[in-house]
Amino acid sequence: MEFLTRFSLRSPAVIVIAVVLLFAGGIWSAQQLPLETMPDLDIPIVTVVTVYPGAGPSEVLEEITKPLEKATRNIDNAKTQNSTSSDNVSVIVMEFDFGDDLDKAKREVEDAVKAIALPEAAQTPKVGRISFSSMPIMRLSIAGENNKSIQTLRFTKDDIVPELQGIDGVGSVQLTADDESAVRIELSPKKLRENNLTAAQVSQFLVASNLAFPAGELTLKGRILPVTVGQKFDSVKAIKDMPLLSTPSAGASQQAPGSTGAGAPGGQAGSRSSSGQSGASQIKIITLGEIAKVSRGSDRTTVASRLNDKSAFSVNIIKEPDANTVDVADDIGDKIDSLRDSGPKGLKIKVVEDASIMVRESIGGLLREGLMGSVLAMLVILIFLGNWRSTLIAAISIPLSVVISLIALKQLGITLNIMSLAGLAVAVGRIVDDSIVVIENIYRHRQKNDLAGNDLITYGTKEVTSAITSSTFTVVGAFIPLALVSGFIGQVFTPFAVAVVTSILASLIVALTVVPLMAKYLIAGQHGKGGREVMSMSKTYQRSLRWSLDHKAIVLIVSFIFFFASLGLIRLIGSNFLPTDEQNQLNITIDMPAGTSFKALDDKSREVEELVKGKSVKDRLATVGSGLGQQDFFSSAGSANQANIFLELTDDADPEKIAETLRRRLNRIAGKAEISVAEIDSMGGMTSRTEVLVRGDNLKDLRKAADKVSRGMKKIDGLANVEDNLEQVKDGVFVDVDSEKAVKVGLTSAQIGGWLRELLVGKNVTRVTLDDEAVDVSLGLKSQTFDKPVELADLAVPTPLGLSVKLGDIADVREHPTPVTITRRDERQFASITAEITTSDSGRVTRDIKAELEDMKLPRGVTTKISGVSEQMEEGFSQLGMAMLVAVGVVYLIMVLAFGEARAPLAILFSLPFAATGALIGLYVTGQQISVSSMIGGLMLIGIVVTNAIVLIELVQQKRAAGMPTREALLEGGATRLRPILMTAATTIFALLPLGLGLSDGGLISQSLAVTVIGGLTTSTALTLIIAPVIFEILSNIGAKKPANSGNPGPKSENAVA
Fold first, then answer.
1. HSE (CB half, 13 Å, CA atoms) of 840?
2. Could you give the CA distance from residue 121 to residue 965 in angstroms, rounded to a whole number?
3. Where in the chain is the domain with CATH 3.30.70.1430?
4. Domain 2-32+359-577+874-1039 coded CATH 1.20.1640.10
5. pLDDT digit string, tens, across residues 797-826
6. What's the pTM?
């Protein structure tokens, strides 16, 4: 590496030009890098969502889920296949490993799904993937002057959504709203019977009456005029006033209806009496409005949205994966301003949630903390060296190393997010270390006036090149095992590791090229002076070290007592998966019993909305229910009985305290509802939800075990919102068709099911143009028609024979309980008990769950497994623990290669246990937990801690190689290296101090990491100066009878120090 220094001194112009180009490239890269909150993770999941309107969980399972499960069971590399069948929707989740080719997996799933035939009424399955980039970056609430007006909805659908969709970087725009423009015709079964009419006849009348039939041309006085017969509907009133023929005296059971679909293929269009008794005297004219409710919009509302009690439409905007969140959000804001001006009178568009705000705050906070750390590091250098020129030279390594790292991030396709920026902020203190060692060595020789000019620069740099190269590669080597960490943790922390490694490698190059060149012009010509304070401090240290070398047993015993005592803090500290930033937002979920009407759900939501009002709540956005087809890949199945209320809190609010208060208050009004309150964090809640999976072949035993586990988890302190997916059942109506009776009248179960579906769900029978908009006209039975399910049996079923028959005459209609959802894993049913962890000590909660499960007596054949964040934490800790062990081995190997022997590196490794002591004390004092972040800090600490010992022992080896006895080499080497060791440790500690204090948003993940490094480096530095020499002398006395011949020999006089 010495050639770099010689080249820079010979070619200053090249170095200057290179520096300018690097700064320009770094600034350009920073402008081009997308800004995100978190790295864009490709969650290894492919989903298949299929909407099957009007079907219950059992029907969805048999007709949709099972065929899809069979079709996708052999997809390459799929780990597990999970399915949920609920009312109207089937969701299949295929899990893969991180690193698998998910695009290929998605294509294979799509091909498999296309190859099977599903019921005609089922919508086309939607195959998709999940990633952080598919989360909405902005949520809008749109309202008109008259609340949910048709005009506002039309403008939203026709103008707002397309305009937003057209913005560069916007991937998709999702509108949550019922179709307010459609015409809904809801027939009364009672009125149909009284007037001897069927839905089929009404449908035929609608189609026939909504025609403008061209009947040719008419020549009138030399003009040719087209002749049109009939007229299309042009208003809701016209539809209501449509005339119908009624024959009230005829028996309903003798009616011969046509068919509206699958109910009676080939049936007759008209009606006839089996006895031929109908006559003109029995016929009367009625209007459609007399037997049906005709309205614009739907009485069967399935979804509603409100902002602060006012009805509104909800719009979610999702960006493209590689688009810049901040830029896209800015463009959306500009577009919203123009849409407000061009929209209908009274149009209100409010931004309820904007992810770019968190991105700006998080990144801005990390930049501020990184800058503060840089300033503190420079002050430390200035205090130690007392020379502004030397400080300036060292300072250049920070921005130059950072811009080089930014160029690397751009080339590797890594975004600027809180992880990559945290890596740069954490590396600031270490970036300057190599430059400090070089500057300090040159400056020390300058103070002694033993060298000058290029000789001073060349020799001062060469003398420490080996040490700083070894120490840099030990830090880099400590991150190599991170490649062994797979899954979520590996992907989240990869940008962090890349930022640290690239900036530290850049700092080594800078220290060997730019720093010597600047020193040539700023230091070499200066007269050396000062150093009295350093000499005084060195003498004090020498006396302490001499005593320690004379009392090795006492030093080691006290040190290891200190170490083992600190291990007792582990229990007190606690553990969690990942620290997360609170977003001053809460989400309230209301789950009503299955089968609850929309009105009841909406009433409960309004009650909750009223209760949560308060001065700490800025906005309340409620989304009630979910319309068919509105589910996305993050929707939970069966959410038609669910309402969600999003709360935006004031800046000074305490989300945790407010959440706890709301839980108590909402519990008092819950009634039959399950109401949960969750804090929204930067990880989208991924780090706070735990799950217990219960498996078994017997459904009865499975229910019993799931109930037992659920009750056990509810007793655990720190768990809230415990939910059992098998706990809820609802009453369902089953129509068991008597095949023999049905075939006698020409019907099958499939025909009866199709006919009944069209009546209950509704069917689009024609289209009309209203207010210059073509809308569907839907025909079905009136909602909430029946008081008892048995009344369904009175409906007249059309037959292919031209007659009708009561449903109860050919089928048994009865109520029967049915599950709300049916969940399966790898085509076997299982139970899932989920809960929110409300304490920061997730590890303690996981241990309590394990203890509860171990003491539980479950039915034979039933097994349990802890999943969710608890499983992620155990897997992550295990992988990181192994990575740390490997890191120790890699660091040791690098040091053996550098020193050419094994004993000196072994002495250096003894610094590591005392780094753990400081890290635990730091976490305990600051109230942080042991987490993935703090363990990454420990990984980094392994590389950083040994650098101080390398700088010390490397010089000791040089002196021993020059013939100096071990004891004298240790005393003199320690005194010489004291200042650079203290300087590098102090700059790292003070550079990390702003991060460790956690003063800004977005830095919580890096806070525990910084605290770990600060605590570990503090104790290890103090003890390295004592322990490493003690261990080194012990090993030297045991293993060597003569001075070591390894190491790079330095000058053979007092001046030969580095």
1. 14
2. 91
3. 39-132
4. yes
5. 888 877 778 888 888 888 777 777 888 888
6. 0.74
